[in-house]
Each structure stands twice: as C-alpha cells, then as structure tokens.
Amino acid sequence: MIPIRDTTPSKSVPVVNNTLIGINVVFFLVQLAQGPAQDHFVYLYGLVPAKFTVPRVAAYFSFGQNLLSLFTFMFLHGGFMHLIGNMWTLYIFGDNVEDRLGSARYIAFYLLCGLASGMSHLLLNAHSNIPTIGASGAIAGVMGAYFILYPGSRILTLIPIIFIPWFVEIPAFFFLGIWFVLQFLNAAGSSGHAGGIAWWAHIGGFVFGVLFLKLFDRIPATGVTDRLRHATEKKRSHRFQVIKTGRGEEAANLYGSLTITQYEAMVGARKLVTIPWGLQKRLYHVVVPQGIADGQVLRLKGVGRPKSDGTRGDMMLKIKVQHI
C-alpha cells in the first residue's frame, strides 16, 4: 500500500513543513558529499547511545558534539529510498498538523518529537554502538498528533494490482493505528534495532507526539502565526480527488460533488478525479469553467452506469466552493 495523500485539506501553505523537507534534502546531499568519510560523518552527527553511556567511547567526543547529535541525527538518512519514504510521509501528514498548531508551535513540536524519539531509543539501547539516523521518529510524532486531531480523515492509498492502479480511502485512525501496532510488534519481536530500523524511536515519537500535542494545544498562537496563515492561504484545492457516488432517479446516472476553492471558482481549474462504483474505478479529467458558482452542476456525459441499450448514463458533479 502506498499512501498518496489525506482527504483533509490544509487551509494554508505549510511553510515550516516544506522547509523541513528542504533541510532534510540538503543534509542528505551534504552527507553524500562526504564520500569515503561518510561513515565517520554519520557516526559523529548520528545518535550513538554508546557516546553517552560508555566512557571509553564518550571520551572521543565533546559535550557539545554529543548535544548536537541529539538533533542532527533526525536530518540524516541511510539512503535515497529512506529519505523519500520519510519525506513523503511528512508531506502527507505534516501540513495538517502545522495548520492546527501554527508555524511557530509546529517547528518546536517537530524538534521535541524528534528529541523524544531519540531519547526513547537511547534509553532502551543504552550501550549500542550503532548510529541511529533519520527523521522517522520526529515524523512518527507528527503521525501521533494527526491520529488525535483528524481520526475521521481518510488516507487515499494506492494498491497496485498487477498493472492496474487501485485507489482506496482508508480511515486515518485505522491506517495510523495499524502502523503503530506494527512498530510495537516489530520492536517486541526484535532487539529494537533489527534490520537497521530503530523501532522504539518510532514508538517513542508517536507516543510523545500525542502527549506534546496536548501540551502545545494549550499554548496560545502568536500574532506572527495569524499573519503567516493569512499570507499563505491556499488558493487551490487538491488536484486529485475521489468522488463518492450515489444514484439518482435514473439508475444509470451517478451523482457526486467536487470541492474547489473560491479562487478556482473565479479563474477555473483542472482536476483529476477517480469515480468508483462497484468494483470499477476510473480516472477522468474534469475542467471547471471560470465563474462557476457554489451548487452548480457539471455534467460528465457517458461516465455513468451502463444502460440496457449499450450506452452509459452521465455523472452529475455538484460544485462545492470551499470558504476559508
């Protein structure tokens, strides 16, 4: 299963979340640039429990270097796919959490989740000499916050069946709940770092993400956050949408709704939608004309159910203009 996006749109551009993704990419490029010295670089800036607990190892590092590694480890990655996987997950879940907390609180929340995940790994693998790197723990904290904030949201997931793309919407509480259970089972059934994966860091990040959310939700947003939200207000909705269909009086016709922003209603838009009925799921390009109003209906000819004469009914898309 490959998560594509969630179905809860954020109201503003996630400036901090996008910046964190950019920083992770830059750190990865710096890491690659080390060449043969990359292992030393990872050992120095990664989280190595033995540097804090084993005196003969700790003697080679200053207090400042050890303190710095508690934060730098979460910006390093073990390879291109490790980076892509983490950044894609952060892209999907981080924008909504930033939307709720605001930019200032979100950056503090993210870093604290990363720190807490690292400490969880350190305490449970106190004498390990293996460097732990990656944003997974901090992102697990973001996922924990999302689990609490948006349990009713759905995760649009791609399930490739041979060469056929199959898109399904999985409830967020189920998607994230299963993820957490799998982390726990893997941690309980291994040393906690089997296969090069710090399972307890994931678990710690998720749990502390839930706890920190409760704390940060009580801290009032700053005036800077309000001004930034206004400046970064999104003008466009998701280009790809899943249309939930229903039947009308004519069995061959299908009915659904398409959500757009006020800006898109004014200037027009192009959307890629998947329209499921039964076991069939097809992709269609939909052109939203300029000046369309809330409640107007777009008629997609021949997109409905088959008729007895071999033709197809139509798809009636009701436009919903999102008021932010």
UniProtKB/TrEMBL annotation:
Subcellular location: Membrane
Listed GO biological process terms: protein folding
Alphabetized UniProt keyword annotations: Cell inner membrane, Cell membrane, Membrane, Transmembrane, Transmembrane helix
Pfam families: DnaJ_C, Rhomboid
Transmembrane region(s): 12-30, 67-94, 106-124, 130-149, 161-185, 197-216
Topology within the bilayer: Multi-pass membrane protein
Domain Peptidase S54 rhomboid: 67-213
Superkingdom of this protein's organism: Bacteria
Stored SUPFAM superfamilies: HSP40/DnaJ peptide-binding domain, Rhomboid-like
Name used for this protein in its record: Rhomboid family intramembrane serine protease
